[in-house]
Amino acid sequence: MRRLLTHWQARAAAIPDPALNLLARAKLRDERFNVEVAAMVATAAPAQHRARAVEAIVALQVMYDYLDGLTERPSTEPVREGLRVTRAFVESVSVGRPSSRTNKCPRPYAEDDDGGYLAQLAATVRDLVVELPSVDAISRVIPGCAARCAEAQVRAHAVAPVGLDQLESWAMREAEGGRLQWREWLFGAMGSVVAAHALIALAADEGATAQGASELDSTYLSLCVLTTALDHLVDYDRDALTGEHNYLHLYATREELAERIALIARCVKERVRTMPNGPHHAVILSGVVAYYTSQPGALGEFARPVTERVRDELRPLITPTLATMYAWRAASALRRELRRRRTVWAS
After folding, report:
1. Is the CB of residue 307 less than 8 Å from the CB of residue 261?
2. Could you give the CA distance from residue 254 to residue 338 in angstroms, rounded to a whole number?
3. pLDDT digits over 186-226, tens only?
4. From CA 160, how far away is CA 237, in angstroms rounded?
5. Stretch 291-319: mean pLDDT
6. Exposure string over 200-239, b if 16+ CB within 10 A, otherwise e
7. How far apart are CA 118 and CA 123, in angstroms?
8. Torsion over CA of 23, 25, 29 and 33, rounded to 10 degrees?
9. Residue 101: pLDDT above 60?
10. Is residue 146 a contact partner of residue 127, using CB atoms and an 8 Å limit?
11. Alpha helices, DSSP H only, in 243-303?
């Protein structure tokens, strides 16, 4: 992962347009942890194909973070323009049988001089994914996964200029007839880049099936409800002070939020038990919840009841992971303090 990030950092530094150059390098610097989490999902891939899966997943996450910045830029038609730009993300995983593998991913973002950065990211993902042994097993599922993720990203960024109605009505349409209520479906769609990573890791498994890919995508859609909801939860108090938009207001009460999120956690825990490689996915679930609920914001006045309900659903699975996360955070805080003291002493 570090080697791959070094490669993409050098590639971003070569972008001719100064604004895009700054954006790409800032995303790689400030959102490195996103890439670390993404690469962790690749541990589900068999060892003989894991390196290729890691490379594809890292490129996909780097592209997603870059597009996150691009779709935040002002536009007179933010939804239409955002969907055009994020076409690269969807096309990069629109893969299938050998007859279609000669198709080149078109350059999707030619208006600005990014030096082909986005096109290279998309081509890298595509070229790697089509060589995974079970690419056909995921070929019908992963484009839809990427599409919902990209559109959720675009519509969320469009809330400020054009309002919330377009996001809510889209989520209601897409969630109709499914297992999740529209609010949970929306949260799952917002975090579905993780589901795309899990599908790439599955494609590295020679025994993967189309049914398994569909079940994995459905399970990770629910797991991504937790990543989005808990992310907003730990930022709730800060967002209230800064005026930042927080989607937890879609729930009428904190009690309703706690009930729904705890239910999702319970459902995901039960579903991974019956999946191939279930224990691995169970550890990913516990890691996600432990990461978010070990943050200081998770124990704030608003967040604490929700945090406790979700943790209760996952005990005892989450207990060792939570202890690890607290130890990791304490070690990180100690390192920061030591760096601060060295700086003071040096000055």
Report:
1. no
2. 39
3. 999 999 999 999 999 999 999 999 999 999 999 999 999 99
4. 20
5. 93
6. bbbbbbeebeeebbbbbbbbbbbbbbbbbbbbbbbbbbeb
7. 9
8. 70
9. no
10. no
11. 254-272, 278-293
